Amino acid sequence: MRQQHLIVALLTALCIGTGMAQAEPVKIRIAWITIGNPPPLLEAKKDLAPHWGTSYTVEPIHFQGTPPIMTAFAAGELEIANLSFSSLGNAIINAGLSDLRIIGDEGQDGVPGYHSIEYMVLKDGPIKTIDDLKGQVVATNIIGSAVDIGVRAMLKQHGLLATRDYSVIEAAFPNMPPMLLQQKAALIVGVPPFSLDEKFRSQTRTLFSQKDAMGKSQLAVWTARAPFIAQNRAALVDFFADYLRIMRWYLDPANRPQMLQIVAGVFKVPVERLEKSTYNENDVYFDRNGMPDMKALQADVDTAAELGFLKEHVDLAKYTDLSLMQDAVKRVGAVK
Is 233 left (phi over 0), alpha (psi -120 to 50) or beta? Predict the structure, then answer.
């Protein structure tokens, strides 16, 4: 018996010494920005994630906008960065992240039947047309963000350029409605759920939408760096398969009452604030197979370049690897 124990001990030591011991789960730090972004909601439904804690773990990290996410991503402080189409080009060209890869969808604007981000003014205020914004103050969440590009694109169509013809200030999305009502800005970005408050809407109106400015937009995508993908491919496919299971549960109307309770608890907001706009037709569109609209994304990045946010054209096909998500879809089945 003693000899058997010695043999087991020797084999265990050998396994550890040769790297055969069970590996630690891959830590995946994921950025998020606002209410409804998926990363903070995943853990609440990890009962649908059989690989959580085994092959990977998730740590959501909050940012105000995608430009600071790009900075953290470049510094190696994130494994998955949700980058807007505007920050995507900057990350590749200005931050030198040539190993960046687009790996999945993180929200689309202007999809038929779904919400488009609103640019809002006071109902009885001085701004009646886009031309009236000359000399005014426009609020955005972060200069260079997707919604910032949207407003600049529309105003440029009317001959108005930022700094020359109007001023731009930054504010967090929850602070924009009061800024408009207090006339600290003539136009703000209205995003759900903050823009859907009945009292606020009774005093305001939508001047134009993101769809009016740019057509269908791939607002943001999930990205990772090629070396991380190569080193952790199996764990990432596990994660995306679990992610798709969870997101399909959140997006299923049959689960809506429970979903709203979870979202309210995670983001610490009243359920009533979420009912109109969370994971329904009043929200951005999330692809059930995790696939971004690459045609729309390329057009969005081209617009950012035209507005001077990029020094050169970016061919996104060189920076795309959707094979992880495609393999995950094969596991869980595609949704039409």
Answer: alpha
